Amino acid sequence: MVLVGSPSCGKTPPLQQAVTPLLKLDGEYDRIYCKEMEAYRKWERMSAKQREKNALPDEMKMPQRKCHVVVDSTIEAMIGAMRDNPRGVLIYKDEIDTLLSNFNRYNGSDESYFLSLFSGIPFKYSRKSNSEHIFLSNPYCSIIGSTQPGRLCEQFGGKRMMNGFSSRFLKVYPEINEMPSWSDTSMPEGILEEWERIIRKVVGIDPPTDQEGKADSIELPFSHGAKLRVISWKDEVNNMAYSGTDSDSVRALCGKLETYLIRFCLVIQVMRGICGESGMNEIDEKTAELAIMLTEYFRNMESRIAPEIDAGILNNRFTMLLGNLRDSFTTFQAVAEALKLGISESSVKRFLRNGGRDFIMKESHGRYRKI
Fold first, then answer.
1. What is the dihedral of CA 265, 268, 270, 272, to 10 degrees?
2. Whole-angstrom Cα distance, residue 322 to residue 360?
3. What order of strands is seen across the sheet that includes strand 89-95?
4. Is 220 in contact with 269 (CB distance < 8 Å)?
């Protein structure tokens, strides 16, 4: 998810407050990890006789760093963190550009890893530095950060809109036109303390173990009423939105919102259960309704984001497109050339229809001439 807003509009404080309980937990884990590593290094320096004398085992595994939040977001660090924390990790970037701008800088495959990661697709990774091979059967990683409207085209436009990368990100773009005011009031401590208690309860949920003693998953089935409600939403709302547009980006969004609806159901049901509002044995109808409301909120947010991305595409790419076309050209030729530049077919047709009146004129059906 990415929070979108002008500089200094107040994006950072709510993100910090939301993530703070996880960072506190990571600080506690780090202190334990340092003690365990100190004991491990001490054991490593001992001879077999010294270990026997001190009643230490013959073999000892290197401690694993437990965490919830990943600071170093390189692919190697992220995969190592997911291996050591099979319940998943969070990449938290105040400025999301520090993550996205590093994609494909080194090996050209970072973005493809994140595209697969959204669906939890198992993948293998080899660390060339130490010939280590990592296999993740059920990888999970959340990403959250913020950005400015003027950066949306560069970060989520072009190829990233066409390959589905953009639609994987939930976007929040509130109407904030003024800087936040200063006052002597602050967030009540009771609210922050309650938020931390809730997060710690969620983290403290212990899943069952399998025959080998490894943590297994907890499954929450849909109640009959909840299942009918989400099916109704898909048939009457999302399918209608999909069939009612010729925009590839809108259709991609429809597909990803279906995935997010199911995830919202899980998150909301667990949080309601933690707060004593419901049980945690199934997804109930109220949770399904709340998840649908949240999903439609993000659909509405995307409708505010799309013009910002399209405007950026017009500014940055259409000059190059027109420069690559002959003085007289067809719609087919414009679309073919635009795809090479990472501009979607729907954006080109929209440009030819009403966005390029100062640059082109229509000669006949499907044929245009530069002015």
1. -130
2. 9
3. 69-70, 89-95, 141-147, 2-4, 171-172
4. yes
β strands within 96-222, DSSP E = 123-127, 132-136, 141-147, 171-172
**196 has which bridge partners?**
none
Q: How far apart are CA 269 and CA 283, in angstroms?
A: 6
Residue 115: is it exposed, middle or buried by C-beta count within 10 angstroms (0-12/13-18/19+)?
middle
Q: 3-state SS of the chain: helix, strand, coil percent to 5?
A: 55, 15, 35
Write the single-letter amino acid at 256: K
- Beta strands 141-147 and 89-95 are parallel
Which contacts of 251-260 are long-range, i.e. CB under 8 A and separated by 24 or more positions?
252/161, 252/164, 252/166, 252/167, 253/167, 253/299, 253/302, 255/164, 255/167, 256/164, 256/167, 256/168, 257/295, 257/298, 257/299, 258/234, 259/118, 259/119, 260/170, 260/295, 260/298
> Alpha carbon 239 to chain centroid distance?
23
State how far Cα 259 lies from the chain centre: 12
Closest CA to 119 of 75, 162, 164: 164
Q: Which residue type does 54 have?
A: N
- Angle, helix 248-274 to helix 189-203, in steps of 10 degrees: 90
* DSSP per position, 336-361: HHHHHTT--HHHHHHIIIII-TTTEE
Chain mean position to CA 178: 28
What b/e readout covers 6-16, taking b as 16+ CB neighbours within 10 angstroms? eeebebeeebe
Q: Which pair of structure tokens corresponds to residue 282?
A: 């199934």
Cβ of 90: how many Cβ atoms within 10 Å? 18
Edge-to-edge strand list for the sheet holding 328-330: 328-330, 367-370, 360-364
What's the mean pLDDT in 348-354? 79
Q: Rounded to an integer, what distance in angstroms lies between the CA atom of residue 87 and that of residue 140?
A: 7
* Model pLDDT for residues 116-127, shown as the tens digit of each residue: 888 888 888 876
Per residue in 139-193, pLDDT (tens digit) is: 899 999 999 888 888 888 877 877 888 899 999 988 887 888 888 888 888 999 9
**Whole-prediction pTM value?**
0.78
Nearest partner of 305 among 137, 133, 167, 183, judged by Cα: 167
